[in-house]
Amino acid sequence: MSNHVTTRTQEEIAALFTEDLVTGVGKSVKHDSAPKHVSGEAVYVDDRLEFPNQLHIYARMSDRAHARIVRIDTAPCYEVPGVAIAITAQDIPGQLDIGAVLPGDPLLADGKVEFIGQPVIAVAADSLETARKAAMAAIIEYEDLEPVIDVVDALHKKHFVLDSHAHKRGDSAGALATAPRRLQGSLHIGGQEHFYLETQVSSVMPTEDGGMIVYTSTQNPTEVQKLVAEVLGVPMNKIVIDMRRMGGGFGGKETQAAGPACLCAVIAHLTGRPTKMRLPRMEDMTMTGKRHPFYVEYDVGFDDDGLLHGIEIDLAGNCGYSPDLSGSIVDRAMFHSDNAYYLGDATINGHRCKTNLASNTAYRGFGGPQGMVAIEEIMDAVARELGKDPLEVRKRNYYGKTERNVTHYYQTVEHNMLEEMTAELEASSDYATRREAIRAFNAASPILKKGLALTPVKFGISFTASFLNQAGALVHVYTDGSIHLNHGGTEMGQGLNTKVAQVVAEVFQVDIERIQITATNTDKVPNTSPTAASSGTDLNGKAAQNAAQTIKQRLVEFAARKWQIFEEDVEFKNGQVRLRDHYISFEELIQQAYFGQVSLSSTGFYRTPKIYYDRSQARGRPFYYFAYGAACSEVIVDTLTGEYRMLRSDILHDVGASLNPAIDIGQVEGGFVQGLGWLTMEELVWNDKGKLMTNGPASYKIPAVADMPLDLRVKLVENRKNPEDTVFHSKAVGEPPFMLGISVWCAIKDAVASLADYRAQPQIDAPATPERVLWGVEQMRRLKQAAVSLPEPAVETAH
Amino acid sequence: MIQFLLNRELRSERALDPNTTVLQYLREYRGKTGTKEGCASGDCGACTVVVGELVGDRLRYRTLNSCLTFISALHGKQLISVEDLKDQGRLHSVQQAMVDCHGSQCGFCTPGFVMSLFALQKNAGAVNEYDPHQAHEALAGNLCRCTGYRPILEAAEQACGDRQPDQFDAREAETIAQLKAIAPREMAELSDGEKRCLSPLTVAELAEVYAANPDARLLAGGTDLALEVTQFHRELPVMIHVGQITEMKQVQIADRHIEIGAVAPLTDCYAALAAEYPDFGELLQRFASLQIRNQGTLGGNIGNASPIGDSPPLLIALGAEVILRKGASSRTLPLEDYFIDYKVTARQPGEFIEKVRVPRATPDRLFRAYKVSKRLDDDISAVCAAFDLQITDGVVADARVAFGGMAAIPKRAAACEATLNGAPWNQQTVEAACGALAEDFTPLTDFRASREYRLLVAQNLLRKCFLEQHAPKTETRVTAYV
Question: CATH number, domain at B465?
Fold first, then answer.
């Protein structure tokens, strides 16, 4: 108990009481780790102090895409000085498979390999370089089997990791047959490497109880705990996961962190020594899954106004060799193949293609972006077909407010903000004027062409596996009034800890400085869901609010009792407490409550209300609410090389009542740039043997500083609380802004379409690398030439 | 033994594997884990540190990628890492700017950005002057996956706009004295018994030790050589570090030539080349990253004989020569004859590039260079083109056309040149010359580009060159939008 409580007069406390809390919700509080980030003091797993006997682990990866393992001989590994152990699948004491939802991911290859990069053996030595050298010394013999590398090939062969699934509303075939106009097309959408700056890393210490303390960079501590327990064959209560911070996650550490953690645990178990496994960048990019590439085929029927009558879309996700999370990811692609639009009679088919590549996994948006790219491509194609501005066609097809407001999975779109937001953005970005200016520029500029596009985002918030929508928290108030906070979410840079602390600060009406958040830890908050699906704050913020309110209610009841006042007379504000007409400080109240034998610790829990979904019927309300956004981007394209530059982007994004505008804007801008990277320069290239050729930042290019738009104007929608009862009526912000990047891809296509007078849609698959753009340019030039030599309008309806 | 300042502390390292990178040294030997490994290939900037060195009597601070810098390169210099910026419990102004502007999210790239901002602030022209172009250049080699860069640029503006004297300013005289005291006076050697790195101080010394150790690997900036260790896991038993040879770092402008010492960092080559050939300057600004250009040398870019090195096509088109030295003798070779086949050069065992001689611009010649890559900054060219044309009375009197990325070596386009030479400089000639490019090159398809794209772009770049000269008001470059 502190003896140094500041004594203030009643007047002073009363004056403080009238002031607002400066670090509560809605304030741009700085990221709690920022001073540590900038000074190098923030500790990541690889920075932890090492034990002298710690082993470093390297996994030797398969160099075959599909093969039977004929022989493994690890004896040569032991000839390298410093090697402690070399293990194969046979050495795993418990369960071999670490598949997240369904089996299919052996920790080490068992009898066969299914992609280049699959871990076959793991070697532990006194340094990473020694472990690597020893692992490469092992003899592994293969008998090659036929691989499937191409997603279209897999689709045609019906080579799937899971069954296909459909969302159906109405009679799409009939609608297509009777629609005045009809278009068919196909599109390849590239995958994306997460490129978290910190690669996968885990460090494990054996405990005296036969368990493990696991320090790991994961979005999913409970899952790692469960899998470590399973590979060791021990109960979960032997395993503790400690996760202070990740150097970026983006979905890439939802399931993919488990492998290194489990290998560390197995080897720690076998040797009794602490272990660490950090993947060098090339190994990380080769071994771990990425965003799913998709192949899309569509057939759309519409009228002369561009209004959709019916649609059929086939979404084929390239899942790689195992199911991982592909079931839900392709589902989410299907859920978002409407984006903001009422599709009419629709059939959306989702296929989960099996290829001999690393198992593709969660990545910001979780399939949603791919579904949205598909429908935005269709919007553009319809507009070109009709010679209309694509924005006109988009707006024409927006969900209505009272009719045409039910999705193809039968959820009613409530509180739709896109019409107003689009109008506001159109005005603030000066869309119409710039559209005219760009047409004039393009007419006068033979080589450089400008493009403009305004695209909307409507993104469904909630895990579509409904049970995951739950969270826990733990709050302790110590006798000096300082507060310790834990919750089940993980901090990967998104500012979750800061936001959750703001929530607790708001409930107690104390300054955030008083609140300490420590590492996410499975022995503090158990049975957590992954920090994913943008849900971190919605779920954990609510759970922490619940815990804090429980304690606060105890304090209120205690105060009413002690000071003989009504509960309504007890009010917390700005670190002070009013007891009817008397004031005390928060810490004074805490002291008194402690002496009054009040419990100052509580767990909190939350589960999302209202949601349900029947997958067998493909009907329900999978999403608690939708987050909205819109972006208007302008680009300039060099029609001789296909190079381009982002000139300007205006963004208007909906986060409900923002918990922290600075952090939310950081998510919006960062998501947008990541999204534009995905659709422009970030190209994954595999060779015909299934080897990833773009396996490092020299060959795989994520946006650098020059790739952000030269003029970037980001605004959050103001004074629009989330109508649903979310944490302080905020909205999730992690994933939705990613899809604002689609505006850049559409703007590039718009620039290219100018070459054929905007009457044809250039076939530019994603990502729109300079090469793909140049081929689009060539396609438009050919069409234009053909048009010049024809008497009739160039682009006929392609029935 | 090598000696350097670890911030303020004098370190004398005797027994250390010369294959040790500065990043490993900081993290594993000194327990300074603030500097991060993001890629170990010099492409992400998370490991950026600042090295201070004496230039004349002044301190100069430059960023480099610690993952690509072997420890011997620190000899006689000051190493500053992110831990050194906080002073008496207070954040440095660049650190505070990053905090104030919400410039960190996950924080893993942040130490690298902080060091780039620190060097930017130190090198900003006048006090309290923010030059957005300079900031972009300083940050182009640092990747951030979280923020989208806007807040980091804002931090740059704050840090440069409100520059306060810091502890490094306060200790400047002391640091200069410390560096003078450890200035190399004789050839240094770092070894751990089996592996050695020698650092000669003069060309003559280099010629001697290289002749005695013809199998040694020459270490200049090391930005390519270090990849053999960090990415390909080879061990380099003997290295000769040439970065201490002052006479090989000179850039001299003579009447008809610019003479560039082979070890001059690309950063130091910029001014002379850009003044003469603006397109060379533009290309150099997109050449890798500032960290790499602070380390990498023109001699190294030639010496490693990569088919995708960015400077050779330009130098070949300009008719540059290399001066090769072996023992006491030297010879001069046109650069185009230096490259023989993929990674095969005319360099003999024990021979090294001493200088590069670049002809100065003349009013009758037209020089254009273009780099085409997936990403504008810090990317390897799919195609790099250079045109050096002498046009007299509307006729091409002499054409020198060279490409990178189109063949196993940087190479002149003989058929294209032959078509141009003696022909009127018009569209018809250009189209014929474009056709000839298909005879000159059979490019490869790889993950950067297809052969068809490479060939079409090569042709289009000649068309662009013509257009720029013929219709100079036409906008042709997206890079002009800044």
Answer: 3.30.390.50
Contacts of A440 (CB under 8 A, 6+ apart): none
Number of domains in chain B: 2
Query: Given the DSSP bridges, would you call strands A201-206 and A212-216 parallel, antiparallel or unpaired?
Result: antiparallel
Residues of A tagged active-site: 735
Enumerate the domain spans of chain A: 10-30+470-607, 47-146+200-278, 294-464+616-788
Distance between CA B121 and CA B116 in Å, rounded?
9
Task: Please give the structure tokens belonging to residue B409.
Answer: 């070596």
- Picking from B181, B201, B232, the residue at the C-terminal end of a domain is B181
Tell me, yes or no, whether B86 lies in a domain.
Answer: yes
Choosing from B181, B197, B221, the residue where a domain stops is B181
Minimum-distance CB partner of A38 among B44, B91, B378 = B91
Contact A197 B151 (CB under 8 A): no
Domain A294-464+616-788 - what CATH class? alpha beta
pLDDT (tens digit, 9 = 90+) per residue, A404-460?
A: 999 999 999 999 999 999 999 999 999 999 999 999 999 999 999 999 999 999 999
In a domain, B442, yes or no: yes
Residues in chain A: 799
pLDDT digit string, tens, across residues B146-202: 999 999 999 999 999 988 899 999 999 999 999 999 999 999 999 998 899 999 999
Model pLDDT for residues B394-417, shown as the tens digit of each residue: 999 999 999 999 999 999 999 999
Confidence category of residue A401, pLDDT binned at 50, 70, 90:
very high
Of B104, B145, B457, the CB nearest to A37: B104
Distance between CA atoms of A156 and A353, rounded to whole angstroms?
10
What's the CATH superfamily of A47-146+200-278?
Aldehyde oxidase/xanthine dehydrogenase, a/b hammerhead (3.90.1170.50)
Q: What CATH number did the domain enclosing B31 receive?
A: 3.10.20.30
For residue A644, list chain B residues with Cβ-Cβ distance below 8 A.
478
Distance from CA of B479 to the nearest CA of A (A): 8
In chain A, the percentage of residues whose pLDDT exceeds 90 is: 97
Min CA distance, A466 vs chain B (Å)? 28
ipTM score here?
0.97
Output the CA torsion B94→B96→B101→B104 (10° steps): 80
Architecture of domain A10-30+470-607: 2-Layer Sandwich (3.30)
Q: How close A448 gets to chain B, by Cα (Å)?
A: 6
Which chain A residues are Cβ-neighbours of B110 within 8 angstroms?
Answer: 37-38
Residues of B in contact with A712 (CB under 8 A): 148, 150
CA-to-CA distance for B303 and B223, rounded, in angstroms?
Answer: 12
Contact A281 B102 (CB under 8 A): no
Nearest CA in chain B to A33: B107
Check A40 against B378: CB less than 8 A apart.
Answer: no
| Residue written as token pair 């260079």 | B369
The DSSP element (H or E) to which B437 belongs, if any, is helix B427-440
CA distance B174 to chain A (A): 24
Q: How far is Cα of residue A747 from the mean position of the Cα atoms in its chain?
A: 24
Q: Are residues B447 and A694, on separate chains, in Cβ contact within 8 Å?
A: yes
Q: Enumerate the residues of chain A whose CB falls inside 8 A of the CB of residue B95.
A: 35, 38-39
- Domain of residue B383 covers 365-480
